[in-house]
């Protein structure tokens, strides 16, 4: 994309005197299509709903001021319905002054929020990017067929807005999406950005490129809805869509700190779905966007994962970051625009599923108009779709994240980091790592797009150079062989896990299955000749339970998919790869191949839009036979490598579960508890009792706390803006109940030092850091 100039350069059938061949970048930005980017803030300000929200905010402020001055006397007046304005005047309370203050605040909110997207700044920035990006990126790769797909979608339905939904890795994400769209004659989107980016110079620049700024915390006081701000945000997005703007927002809410997708936040998506449901727009096309870098331009998030405070954005930090970037090499950037799907069709699909499940909850577009009776149920306090259709919003958002993650291309640094953390934690010769990369490429073929090509040995060397000596060492041993290993420090392992975690979701189900299989195996006996085994039914049932442990860590399936079917499909892959063996039962009535085909057909029926649930269940009955799955001792090393994928997350969760003891009869600030757990894991890593330095992760600790809150193990309450956590009554009264939670988490922790893994000495035992 850095060399692609659709409107300039030397082209067939173009005049040799065309100045665009001499100044291709200037010609490109001048000749690219210009759009009418209408300003939205004035329209929002004049909207009747917004004016009503101003009045409601003023009435709320009046009640608060009355209560502050009158206390309990106000309650008696409210109950009697007495509205004594004279009493307000005596106490210095003026509704008109409060209303004027809210009107001024409304103007300020819209001014700080509004975008100033314009063609001039887009053209200037495009030219600068053509010049500057090659200084630190070796290339920006996207599929031209995907661009043509978006162009055709825009031409086919010009009144239907495109909603770009990327997974967020870097501040460069939204700039590059805008750059690509602008230079391919697709309307640039308005981009939802955090107000922490409203820094001098750069804030104005981003605003001119389409950013509209949103507060990181919409409600300044916990438990109290900021009705006015929510109304402004809701109406700004709605009117932007009605005025023909495309929109871009990051469904994760912020940049991923771990390298894997975060759980989606449905706030902005709910506004867009609401605009369709109330008839403001006829439809909208959601475009999942996958972005990946060989090396992250933003640096790393090691400090935050270790529990240290994030350094806030500033002008100085931005200048320093740009200067550092221009003098570095970050390799390739890959952007994939995935197949758009219509919100109208998504709603129709989920309605069909709801009817088949016998669910009376069916989502009907335009069944309700925008109400003026305010409540606290939606994004900005109006009683509309956001609460009513919460399941719909959650399903769509999870599908978007799942599709984005599945379509993200694997870069060379992702592959190398994954191998170093799952197979070669103690390092290995370059030739051995290259052979492992060949195996990984074969495994991923047909499932993931690879962002690299060529001989694996060259790719390994290239990835080592990109990651740098701070993360990977590459030296010759005494035999003259090149030896590669991760730098044995906590910081390097945490940063390498960022790159490795791009592949973690792909192998998550396999890792859960094999970890569960080994936890269910009978104890190893030295004199046992026959291979031990586990009932397939028991394995699937237990694996389903273990999948729930990671409910806030990974999205393991689309809302339209049955997780059990995916587990069966993954089990078949493990059988094909020799990680497990099936006990052939001659009188079962089904051969192993027949059973495998039946399970695959059941999975395909589950994926199909037109399927009968009964057919799928009947076929699954074949796969639920009490087949005995046997341990394949010859592939123990391969099994261990797969179990290693989720082992660091399991270690973090176990540390959190064990730390719950300190909450006994004592509530604790959530931030203090997280610091305690991080320090505990750090000490274990130092002592060598935890071999995974990347288990030091505040994100995973928070996800585990969400899980325990979901399980009603802990209670979370807010006091003056501070989150306090305490044990639920049941677990407060019984220590044994806490032990049951620890055992439940231990079920997902691989037993590398016990069981059948301990019987075979593997070459790459994880070293202490």
Q: How many H/I helical runs?
A: 32
The total beta strand count reads 17
What would you call the shape? globular
Strand content: 5-15%
How much is the average pLDDT? 84
Q: Could you give a short account of the major beta sheet?
A: 8 strands, mixed
Summing up helix and strand content along with how strands pair, one would put the structural category as alpha/beta
User: In angstroms, what is the radius of gyration?
Assistant: 29 Å
Structure description:
- The two termini are 41 Å apart.
- The relative contact order is 0.08.
- The chain is globular and about 85 Å long.
- Residues 78-82, 366-386, 621-625 and 761-769 have low confidence and may be disordered.
- It is of the alpha/beta class and 769 residues long.
- The strands form four sheets. Strands 1, 2, 3, 4, 5, 6, 7 and 8 form an eight-stranded mixed β-sheet that branches.
- Helix 10 links the parallel strand 3 and strand 4.
- Keywords: Acyltransferase, Membrane, Transferase.
- InterPro entries: GPAT/DHAPAT, GPAT/DHAPAT_C, GPAT/DHAPAT_LPLAT, GPAT_PlsB, Plipid/glycerol_acylTrfase.
- This is Glycerol-3-phosphate acyltransferase 1, mitochondrial isoform X2.
- One of its GO terms (molecular function) is acyltransferase activity.
């Amino acid at each position: 994309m850095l060399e692609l100039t659709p409107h300039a350069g030397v082209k067939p059938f173009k005049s040799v005197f065309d100045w665009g061949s001499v100044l291709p970048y200037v010609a490109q930005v001048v000749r690219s299509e210009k759009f009418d980017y209408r300003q939205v803030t004035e329209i929002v300000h004049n909207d009747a709903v917004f004016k009503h929200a101003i009045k409601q905010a003023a009435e709320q402020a009046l009640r608060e001021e009355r209560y502050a001055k009158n206390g309990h006397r106000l309650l008696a007046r409210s109950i009697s319905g007495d509205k004594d304005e004279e009493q307000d005047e005596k106490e210095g309370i003026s509704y008109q002054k409060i209303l004027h203050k809210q009107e001024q605040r409304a103007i300020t909110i819209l001014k700080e929020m509004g975008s100033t997207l314009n063609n001039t700044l887009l053209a200037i920035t495009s030219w600068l990017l053509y010049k500057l990006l090659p200084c630190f990126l070796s290339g920006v790769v996207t599929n031209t067929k995907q661009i043509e797909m978006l162009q055709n979608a825009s031409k086919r339905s010009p009144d239907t807005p495109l909603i770009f939904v990327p997974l967020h890795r870097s501040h460069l994400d939204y700039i590059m999406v805008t750059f690509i769209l602008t230079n391919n004659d697709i309307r640039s989107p308005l981009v939802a950005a955090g107000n922490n980016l409203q820094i001098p110079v750069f804030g104005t620049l981003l605003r001119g490129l389409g950013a509209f700024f949103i507060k990181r915390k919409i409600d300044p006081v916990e438990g109290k809805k900021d009705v006015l701000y929510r109304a402004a945000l809701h109406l700004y997005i709605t009117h932007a869509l009605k005025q023909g703007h495309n929109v871009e927002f990051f469904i994760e809410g912020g940049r991923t700190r771990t390298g894997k997708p975060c759980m989606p936040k449905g706030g902005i998506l709910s506004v867009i779905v609401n605009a369709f449901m109330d008839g403001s727009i006829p439809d909208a096309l959601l475009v999942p966007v996958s972005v990946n870098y060989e090396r992250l331009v933003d640096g790393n998030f090691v400090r935050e994962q270790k529990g240290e405070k994030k350094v806030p954005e500033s002008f100085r930090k931005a200048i320093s970051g740009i200067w550092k970037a221009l003098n570095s090499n970050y390799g390739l950037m890959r952007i994939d625009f995935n197949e758009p799907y219509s919100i109208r069709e998504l709603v129709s699909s989920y309605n069909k599923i709801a009817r088949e499940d016998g669910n009376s909850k069916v989502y009907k577009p335009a069944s309700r108009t925008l109400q003026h009776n305010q409540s606290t149920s939606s994004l900005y306090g109006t009683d509309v779709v956001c609460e009513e259709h919460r399941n719909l919003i959650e399903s769509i958002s999870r599908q978007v994240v799942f599709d984005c993650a599945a379509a993200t291309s694997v870069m060379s640094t992702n592959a190398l980091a994954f191998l170093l953390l799952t197979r070669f934690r103690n390092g290995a010769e370059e030739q051995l790592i290259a052979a492992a990369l060949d195996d990984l490429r074969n495994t991923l073929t047909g499932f993931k797009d690879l962002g690299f090509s060529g001989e694996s040995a060259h790719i390994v060397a290239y990835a080592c150079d990109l990651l740098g000596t701070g993360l990977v060492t590459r030296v010759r041993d005494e035999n003259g062989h090149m030896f590669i290993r991760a730098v044995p420090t906590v910081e390097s392992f945490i940063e390498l896990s960022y790159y490795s975690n791009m592949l973690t979701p792909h192998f998550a189900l396999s890792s859960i299955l094999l970890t569960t299989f080994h936890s269910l195996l009978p104890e190893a006996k030295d004199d046992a000749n026959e291979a031990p085994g586990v009932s397939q039914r028991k394995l699937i049932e237990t694996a389903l339970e273990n999948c729930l442990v990671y409910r806030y860590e990974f999205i393991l399936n689309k809302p339209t998919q049955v997780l059990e079917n995916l587990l069966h499909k993954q089990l078949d892959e493990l059988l094909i790869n020799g990680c497990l063996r099936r006990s052939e039962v001659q009188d079962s009535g089904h051969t192993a191949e027949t059973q495998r085909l039946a399970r695959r057909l059941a999975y395909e029926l589950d994926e199909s839009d037109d399927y009968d649930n009964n057919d799928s269940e009947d076929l699954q009955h074949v796969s639920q036979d009490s087949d005995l799955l046997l341990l394949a001792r010859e592939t123990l090393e391969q099994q261990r490598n797969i179990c290693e994928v989720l082992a660091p997350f399991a270690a973090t969760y176990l540390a959190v579960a064990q730390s719950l003891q300190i909450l006994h009869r004592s509530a604790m600030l959530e931030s203090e508890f997280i610091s305690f757990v991080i320090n505990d894991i750090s000490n274990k890593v130092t002592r060598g009792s935890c071999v995974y330095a990347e288990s030091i992760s505040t994100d995973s600790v928070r996800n585990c706390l969400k899980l325990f809150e979901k399980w009603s193990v802990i209670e979370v309450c807010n006091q003056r803006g501070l989150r306090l956590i305490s044990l639920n009554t049941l677990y407060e009264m019984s220590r044994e109940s806490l032990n049951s939670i620890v055992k439940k988490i231990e079920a997902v922790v691989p037993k590398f030092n016990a069981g059948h893994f301990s019987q075979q000495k593997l070459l790459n035992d994880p070293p202490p850091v």
